[in-house]
Amino acid sequence: MARSIGALALAAAILAAIAPGSVLAHENELPLPPNALPEVDLFTPDQRLNLSIPEGAILAHPPDQVRVDFRVDEFDLQPSSLELWIDGVEYTEQLMFWLGHATLLILNPDQFWAEGVHSIECSIRDVNGARFNRDILWELIRPSCHPDCPWPIEPTGEPPVVANIMEDWQDFGSTPFYWHQGVDIRTPVGTEVYSVTDGTVVQVVNYKPTHPKRYLYWEVAVQDPSGFVWQYHHVDSTTIAVSMGAAVNAGDLLGNIVA
After folding, report:
1. What CA–CA distance (Å, rounded) separates 161 from 157?
2. Fold identical between 5-18+149-256 and 49-140?
3. Radius of gyration (Cα) for the chain, nearest Å?
């Protein structure tokens, strides 16, 4: 007999309280033609250089590179005048240049970046001697189960199928209309879902209460000691084993996957 397949969507996010006003994600609500991606303008009108890490970013994983983009075609900037500083240490000589950008490759990012706030300063001088600066602060906050967070389901002989992943352009076979904000893990209906971390249950909610199939959209969310909120979507509401405010340990049962 064939078994039905369910999907667990798992997402991790940082509470907005950690960095008020920071932009953690952007969801483009305007439909795009099939197979099209939104155009990204690296610069605002007043910028002549930009960094790959945005101002105020909060990252869960240390970046393996820092890239500086400069408008060499439009402003005839001299890449040889570019300087880069990280946490007060200069890394200009380690930069690799190519056309309109320069990249600092970080071979051991886990050792290079400590947890906490980091500063990146860069500047470039144009042919007239005018200097343009771009300075930012960003923060590294590792999840409590770093570096290896377990699957929220029991191990099996074969790894479960992962369907949609973070930031897939979701289309369901038609015109794309939103960015996917989680990881879909496909396993048989009724599969038990376990917390991947210690923490506190901060949400047990139906996040699409007006949807015709609203029973598919129950979520259990657990905030870990680092401040991350782990969201487990598509849990069968009749099986949810925890309540708001409850303390959980890694491996505790949260509920079962809905059909």
Report:
1. 12
2. no
3. 22
Dist CA 216 CA 201 (whole Å): 20
CATH class of 5-18+149-256: mainly beta
Q: Give 43-85 pLDDT, tens digit per residue.
A: 676 678 889 999 999 998 899 999 999 887 777 788 889 999 9
**CA nearest neighbour of 105 among 79, 88, 84, 123:** 84
Q: Where are the domains of the chain?
A: 5-18+149-256, 49-140
Residues 235 and 255: their CA atoms lie apart, in Å, by 6
What pLDDT sits at residue 15?
36
Residue 29 and residue 176 in contact, taking contact as beta carbons nearer than 8 Å = no
Q: Say how far apart CA 247 and CA 200 lie, in whole Å.
A: 5
Q: What single string gives the DSSP state of each residue in 162-231?
A: E-S-TT-EE-TTSS--EE--SEEEEEETT-EEE-SS-EEEEEEEES-TTSTTGGG-EEEEEE-TTSEEEE
pTM > 0.85: no
Q: Please report the pLDDT score of residue 55 as a whole number.
A: 93
pLDDT at 17: 34
In three-state form (DSSP H/G/I as H, E/B as E, the rest C), the secondary structure along 130-150 is CEEEEEEEEEECCCCCCCCCC
pLDDT in tens, 190-200: 999 999 999 99
